Amino acid sequence: MSAVLKFAVVGHPNEGKSSVVSTLAEDDTVPVSAFPGETVRCASYPVKIDGEEIIDFIDTPGFQNPVQMKEWMQAHGEDGEALMQAFIAAHKDQPDYHHDVELLRPIAEGAGIIYIVDGSRPVRAPDRAEMEILRDTGRTRMAIINSKEADAAHLDEWKLAFSQHFNAYRVFNAHHASYRERIDLLESLKGVNPDWQPVMERVIETYKHDWQMRTEHAADILAELLDKNMTCQQEKRVASQREARELQPKMLEAFRAKLSKNERRAHRRIRKLFKHTLFKTALDEAGILQEDLFSKQTWHLLGLERNQLVAASAIAGAASGLGMDALMAGSSLGLWAAGGAAIGAASAFFGGERAAHSIGKSRFGIGRLLGGSKVQVGPVHNPQFYFILLDRGLLYVDSIIHWAHGRRSEGVLLSSESGEKKGYVSGFSEEARRCCSQHMKALRKGNRQELEARRAAVQAMLVEVIQACSRR
Ligand SMILES: Nc1nc2c(ncn2[C@@H]2O[C@H](COP(=O)(O)OP(=O)(O)O)[C@@H](O)[C@H]2O)c(=O)[nH]1
Ligand SMILES: [Mg+2]
């Protein structure tokens, strides 16, 4: 066997072979179909890390005639590789046996076997024939119970059958398996064949290292987003008070659009990091990420009521020089005229639409603008903005790392799925919050060196949060 371990993923049609391959190889381009018999050829899905192929999962068509196949093999009187080769030679030109021949090929060439069954249905005669065929190949084989339904009534039957024909078996769900479960599966594969041990050990180490790199990278993307959005500002020259008034709603809108764009871009980068291409579709469905960053609904979905959120940002508020009153009044969107005179006590958080109107009515008076020559929007100094961005980012990361690649359904994403409120910031330790507030303070002050140190601290803190998500 070559240094790259190959595994043929075999089984009955429509039991979830392609879905398991997709999840194991973290490849959501593997064709999965609700109709049996759609996979007609073997397809190889190698796992590459840093361009190096470390393991190869081969998706195969389902068994077509297991009972006849078993009978032919029994009558033939050989076993192991010779038997497989004889079967292939005798049936390769028979269309009725096309799938049987095709699935046997990689096994005949030396691949290990991963046998997939839907454990929520009973064991039937064709399954027993399949298991005996696989046993007689003499190859190392592991069975995977990929239960499509929650019904566990037949599990013992399956386990008994597996104990007779397989080296090991595991429960592994193509739709819900997490990173941790993938590693567990690889660990089991390592244990079933001593010859695989050295390679599998390397594979597992490489997987873990790669996951750590992704975790750090994701934390970095989130920290960068915080930097970007908390310092974002836009300004425009104006010639008159009227022009300023007309400009403000447009600028506010453009400003919000820019913040959202930055966020979407960060999320897209995270999605790519975790090798998802289809996740976007699900994102567009009802769920927390569809909510506007500024809507009250967003805090609600995050499990952060207004008061709680303000409490969560109290430390940060103090650190940033904003008193509680200022936070409550939401005077921190940061609309200033030239010379630093505030022209609006507007807050995106306390009514984005209202914000534009309140500008004109501000007690500071729009008149201040006369003589000034520009209108500036941002940066947002409100700590709530920081925490909402962070919460949404972590929710995105958490969702994507728990979205198995084999899962094709759309629109059942995130909190809408469980109906539960989720929130990360509300569960942060005092230390984690302090870390954030120091970061915010540095963002306000703009000292580069200090900012780098604070940002690194936040990134390290986020690595821990994401690691905890991965362990679930
Ligand atoms: N509910 C559920 N459906 C699954 C699961 N695994 C596969 N399926 C569905 O079963 C059908 C067949 O899956 P596929 O992977 O194409 O099966 P294959 O023919 O064995 O390759 C598809 O509609 C899948 O979405 C699972 O773990 N849970
Ligand atoms: Mg398939």
Write structural notes for this entry:
The protein has helices at residues 17-24, 66-76, 80-91, 98-108, 125-137, 155-165, 179-192, 197-231, 241-273, 279-283, 296-301, 306-312, 314-319, 324-329, 352-361, 383-401, 415-418, 430-445, 448-470, and strands at residues 5-11, 43-49, 52-59, 112-117, 141-145, 168-171, 234-237, 335-337, 374-377. A six-stranded mixed sheet has the order 2-3-1-4-5-6, with helices on both faces. The protein has a three-stranded antiparallel sheet with strand order 7-9-8, covered by helices on one side. The longest helix has 35 residues, at 197-231. The protein is 53% helix and 10% strand. The protein has two domains: 5-174, 3-Layer(aba) Sandwich (Rossmann fold), CATH 3.40.50; 212-470, no CATH class. It has 19 helices and nine strands. The protein is α/β, with parallel strands linked by helices and 472 residues long. The structure holds guanosine-5'-diphosphate (GDP) and magnesium ion. Guanosine-5'-diphosphate (GDP) is lined by residues 11, 13-19, 32-34, 36, 39, 62, 146, 148, 173-175, 408.
Helix content: 40-55%
General form: elongated
Number of helices: 19
What is the rounded distance between the termini? 35 Å
Q: Quick one: how many beta strands?
A: 9
Main beta sheet, described? 6 strands, mixed
Beta-strand share of residues: 5-15%
Ligand inventory reads: guanosine-5'-diphosphate, magnesium ion
Report the C-alpha radius of gyration, rounded.
29 Å
Spans of at least 5 consecutive residues with low confidence: 281-295, 301-371, 411-421
**Overall pLDDT score:** 78
Structural class: alpha/beta
**Oligomeric state as shown:** single chain
* H/E element order: EHEEHHHEHEHEHHEHHHHHHEHEHHHH
Strand order of the largest sheet: 2-3-1-4-5-6
Domains counted in the coordinates: how many?
A: 2
